[in-house]
Amino acid sequence: MNSDSVAMTDLFEKMHKPETVCIFGTGDFGRSLGLRLLQSGYSVVYGSRDPKNSLLLPKGSKVMTHAAAACEAHVVFVAVQREHYGFLSSLVSDLEGKVLVDVSNNLKRGLYPESNAEYLSRLVPGATVVKAFNTISAWALQSGGLDANRQVLLCGDRSDAKQQLMDIAQSLGFTAVDRGSLRVAADLEDLPLQLFPLWRLPLNIAICLTAFIFFYALTRDVIYERVTNGKDIAFRIMISLANKAFPIVSLVMLSLCYLPGAMAGFLQLYNGTKYRRFPDWLDRWMLCRKQLGLLALAFGFLHVLYTLVIPIRYYVRYRINVYTISLVKDNTTYEFDNTAAWRYDSYYSMGILGFGLFVLLGITSLPSVSNSLNWREFSFVQSKLGYITLLLCTAHTFLYGWDRFLKPSSYRWWTPPAYMLSLVVPCVVLILKLILITPCVDSKVTRIRQGWERQGKTLANGRDTKTNQPLMA
Amino acid sequence: MNSDSVAMTDLFEKMHKPETVCIFGTGDFGRSLGLRLLQSGYSVVYGSRDPKNSLLLPKGSKVMTHAAAACEAHVVFVAVQREHYGFLSSLVSDLEGKVLVDVSNNLKRGLYPESNAEYLSRLVPGATVVKAFNTISAWALQSGGLDANRQVLLCGDRSDAKQQLMDIAQSLGFTAVDRGSLRVAADLEDLPLQLFPLWRLPLNIAICLTAFIFFYALTRDVIYERVTNGKDIAFRIMISLANKAFPIVSLVMLSLCYLPGAMAGFLQLYNGTKYRRFPDWLDRWMLCRKQLGLLALAFGFLHVLYTLVIPIRYYVRYRINVYTISLVKDNTTYEFDNTAAWRYDSYYSMGILGFGLFVLLGITSLPSVSNSLNWREFSFVQSKLGYITLLLCTAHTFLYGWDRFLKPSSYRWWTPPAYMLSLVVPCVVLILKLILITPCVDSKVTRIRQGWERQGKTLANGRDTKTNQPLMA
Amino acid sequence: MNSDSVAMTDLFEKMHKPETVCIFGTGDFGRSLGLRLLQSGYSVVYGSRDPKNSLLLPKGSKVMTHAAAACEAHVVFVAVQREHYGFLSSLVSDLEGKVLVDVSNNLKRGLYPESNAEYLSRLVPGATVVKAFNTISAWALQSGGLDANRQVLLCGDRSDAKQQLMDIAQSLGFTAVDRGSLRVAADLEDLPLQLFPLWRLPLNIAICLTAFIFFYALTRDVIYERVTNGKDIAFRIMISLANKAFPIVSLVMLSLCYLPGAMAGFLQLYNGTKYRRFPDWLDRWMLCRKQLGLLALAFGFLHVLYTLVIPIRYYVRYRINVYTISLVKDNTTYEFDNTAAWRYDSYYSMGILGFGLFVLLGITSLPSVSNSLNWREFSFVQSKLGYITLLLCTAHTFLYGWDRFLKPSSYRWWTPPAYMLSLVVPCVVLILKLILITPCVDSKVTRIRQGWERQGKTLANGRDTKTNQPLMA
């Protein structure tokens, strides 16, 4: 053993000998945290109002009064709800120079004007406050970070304190990410209260579209039949109407997911640069393309199931039966229509292939799959294969319509069938894309996106942030 | 360049200059480990019984006798099977003060009374033993940790030695997790020998349930028909009976996955606190809810396929054909039954929507997806959407039954049809949940779960470990 | 607070006080990197040709001339395209002793004889060049590494410089992996330009096989019918032929995914050791088994959809109708064939169970799922369940054929039906496997794979790299 490694060992020993960590609060989170710290080789001291009656604390930990516990350690976790922070003001001198870790969350957003961590910092001005671990649940702490989120986000005003927390987080098997100064604590406290913020807009679009198509089809199919023929076919609501609304919403949302990219291309062509910001609505739209696409896939999936269930429906069996019997009675024969055979088979085939590709897009949107792709692979799948999916699904819808758009009987009450409406957006997207990939336009867009052209001064890197954003993931 | 960064660079250089690592054993694991260490900038020295005949060692490594190799490095990996540890006793003096890393696994559990690492520690008392890397395969080492498990679990009695291993693991692209003292080495050695421990109970439940339902239906359908009418309809085993067993098992297991949560709620209400431990069986049940749910989904998936295949079955086509011909011959007409149309369409629709939501639950159970959700989002999906799924699937089963429970012909041999049995557990779960979400009960449970109420002294954190556990993930 | 922790704090403060990092280049990547560094507490100085006209730089950063910026920091990111590296030669003295980080990518492979990083190192010989961050997109930097690839690969000739970069990467929330010396920079620069390298061979096999089966079936079905009976049944191309090609390709590729493993077993038996390298083609084949299996699953999925769509096809409804009418007219009855009922139902049942298991194999191939399995679990699923899947799918195909291989009418133009061809490879694989699992052969193979037997000198570890490779993941 050479002298260097001796020195190194000494240094390590000094830096990593079992450190004592203090936890204020003996609730679920405090107990789970303490257990995990003990498992990872730390000594743990609990500070409690009533040290003698603190039950269920992990074996190996000590429990004492807040003041006594604070003296034992340099890092103090405050695992107490904000409403009970008051008692800390009496410990100001004991906590002087300590690192106070605020792990708290609120029950609702916007309950308090300032973040819990900043409030804590104001209460104990002599201590360094770090916000950390609030996105980790007691459950994730207990299960060893094996199957729960492993990222500890932290923020604070002093790098050394943050580094200590990052070391603790890493010893506990988490990945620590420094998110900046204590000012961003409010953002970190909002994270666990979020409920699918990026899904709101796409979900609202999906719900509105579904409702619109549903009532549109209800009027044209069920109510029209009732008014003009007096027949009650309301039972069609359950499957036939649902199977009209779902594919239409799916197709429209899939195209909505590719529309902003095409629009951005034209905007860049118009601006002659990629360094002008897009309007805000376009930015927001681009950010929720993945969600738009996945919702489209969900509706497409329901459409597939609703379609495959058709032949076992009571109504369909009844219709086929009645038709067969009528043929027998009229003594006519069912003429085989070669065009119809081609048309229906192509229609189903386009749909199946389109759905197959769509599922592939969905799978590559899974975090673990998209993380294992490089940029080129990801954009190949999401952009190239995505447009082929859109093309197949649009062709599927056109084959469904076939020549019906020529028949006046399709336009009940002077309204076009719902499927025609659904073709507007996809056609626009496909035409825009067709223009963008013509060689002369494509070369211009490519040059703009590489930062060249009318921006000779920019030394960009061949990767841009806006237009090559993940399309669906 | 200011003086500070000079000092820093010096420190870094001292701490991080190419370190030499020794590996005893030139098998697959030793070779893969050496290759990976070399790639990450370490010097590697192999210790071998027969240095001259050691083949296939990575380029750039040295090979010498065990004693000579041990002198070169501070950290010595023992990549040798436990049975061959004997030779180490002759190296006790060479290994004095070294860090010995035990990477071994056994072929079976419980082969030896003490863990390999503790045995190693006893053999070479002067060295510090760290158990590490045993959960990493030679394959994972070679493939650069890009698509295999990246977590290195380690344990040992000295923090400094563990820290050195954690640094090595991190340089190699792994995440290191300290699991405690050398006493837990036996647990780490068991990890690679486990075969789906959490899946055992749910799988056994699924198999027993399937067997029971299958034989129950076999008796009531096939054997009954044989005994009373003398007809052989045994061919129904392949699809009709399977399609009775699968949906029933799916529904029962889905409800079994939500039953313990409801029971826990009532138990907490009864105890008036959440700080009393649940009985062991309830704890174990709660821990395998994810597996119960995923198995239910698998059975539901098979049920969907078995149902969709119905119209292309020979038997079904035969039946429809015979029916049509009989109608023609009797010159009767098929009366359209509006109620039946509503009933069957609703039945399919409920099933499709329920299955769609169920697939969504399954997708959010994928580790990479559930890791990207925060706690609120996860429990929204697994709890709220989960109960809606259960409700839809139960409604689907009720619509299947419709008024058949009133018909005496359903009760062959005085037994109820299988689908009726399957409704018991889901109904119990839904009724319990209904009680729990009535405003007055709900507010009590919420208060208890927040640690308030009859436990004024607890300063909990708004997150609890038991009842808000992941329901399906 | 004891003196130890004071010392530790001092050390931490010195090592981690806000460090200044310099970025050359104000393009997308430079801006995103700067923003991220600022968020993580670094000071950022941009070097720009035209400091006064640099727009859109993140708030809090400074911008100055290249020379001035270089003086401010020890680490300099060169976020400039390789073509513009020229200006660096005038800064050689300013960059003396600095760490230069090459983050560049090329637009195509093989554009330059040497890697960008080595070129940079030659241009500025006094600086230490580290290649890093080139696999991270500007988008991933902006989105906080939360949903994009979090692994920073780096290489370079000096460990201290690499360690500094690893620390920066970790502060930014990434995982850093050291890939070795600057010589591997060319490999790192190729990574973002790869387009599914492991998928090429399997995709080519799948495309060739599909084309072959398609034209084979086209000849035997459509062209034969045209030539001998003069009937045009070309509409069958869309669904019937597709549904012949897809299942056959799926079955053949699934068996191709298990064939190399069986061959490797026999090769090891023949060699009597596992320490002789397999031939190169076998190695390459084994490496793409996961891709072969997943493509087989994709084709199987399409087969399922094409099959389920059968009963709503125009042609099928026509055929059933015509048959029913003919029965009525001929006044014959449809005789129920008990064997046919058994055969078709078993055929569908095998197919459904096989597909269900196949989907399970696919799910365990998802990176996040396979990462959560240990080696034993993974090989249980991929090997045991994989062979059961192959067995079920082969039985499904045999049941499809039934006794048709005995009928001369099946051999149109002296060619066997396509499904018979598809049975060759799976049968070979299953027979090979059957031989390998007979007790006497199995025990020999097991001993060889554990490194024992005729290789008494090897101290292996019970885990081997070649034959126990992931089968499908």
Helix content of chain A: 40-55%
The total count of helices of chain A amounts to 18
- Please identify the structural class of chain A as seen in this structure: alpha/beta
In this structure, how is the largest beta sheet of chain A organized?
A: 8 strands, mixed
Strand segment count of chain A? 8
N-C termini distance of chain A: 52 Å
Specify the oligomeric state: homotrimer
Uncertain parts of chain A? 1-16, 455-473
What is the string of helix and strand elements of chain A? HEHEEHEEHEHEHEHHHHHHHHHHHH
Strand content of chain A: 5-15%
Strand order of the largest sheet of chain A: 3-2-1-4-5-6-7-8
Radius of gyration of chain A: 31 Å
Instruction: List the domain count of chain A as a whole number.
Output: 2
Question: Of all protein chain pairs, which has the greatest interface, and how many residues does each chain bring to it?
Answer: B-C, 94 and 82 residues
Shape of chain A: elongated
Mean pLDDT across residues of chain A: 84
Domain Ferric oxidoreductase (chains A, B, C): 248-381
Subcellular location (chains A, B, C): Endosome membrane
Family (chains A, B, C): Belongs to the STEAP family.
Protein name (chains A, B, C): Metalloreductase STEAP4-like
